[in-house]
Amino acid sequence: MTAPRTARRTRSTSESTVEVELNLDGTGRSEISTSVPFFDHMLTAFAKHSLTDLTVRATGDTHIDAHHTVEDVSIVLGQAIREALGDKSGISRYGDALVPLDEALAQAVVDISGRPFLVHEGEPAGFEMHLIGGHFTGSLVRHVFEAVTFNGGLTVHVRVVGGRDPHHIAEAEFKAFARAFRQAKALDPLVDGVPSTKGAL
Predict the structure, then answer these.
(1) Is-above-0.85 flag for pTM?
(2) What φ, ψ does residue 55 adopt, rounded to 5°?
C-alpha cells in the first residue's frame, strides 16, 4: 500500500507567517486564506483542478504590498509539494494541459524532474503592470511559478497562447499548471519504481 503523499510546512519571517498542508491524493478540497483575495482564488483553482487537498493560512505585510505574502506562500507550497512527492516512485512524471478561459488560452507542461527550471512566456505587453482585483499585480503570476518550481524541484513551461483580460489570462495559467501537475503527480500502475534511467528524481 502506498504511503500517504501529504506534507505540512510552515515559514515565519518579519514579513509574513505561512502554514501549508496538502494531500496530493485528495479530491481538490481547499481552505485558503492568504489575505490576498485574488491569490486565494488562484490557489483554490489550483487545488480543485490538480485534485490536491490544500490548506493555506497566511498573514503578512499586505498593507505595504502583496508581494511578500504571495512569494512566501509560493515558496512554502513548493516545499510542501516536494516533501509530499517523496522519492517519486510510481509517478507518471510528465503532464501537459491546454486550458481556455473565455478569450484566454494557456498551455502548461510539467516534469517532476528534481531539476528546477521555469520557462514562462506569452503574457501580453503591460500585463505585469496590471492590478488584478486592485491588489494582485500581474507580475506576481511569474513570481508564483518561479517560487513553486524552484522549491518543488519541478521543470515547468507555461505559455500564454492568447488573451485580453488579465484576470482570464492569469486564471488560465494557473488552471493549466494545475491540470498538468495533476497528470504528472498521478500514480501510474505501469511504472515500476522511479521513472528515470538514473534511478532517482
Answers:
(1) yes
(2) -120, 125
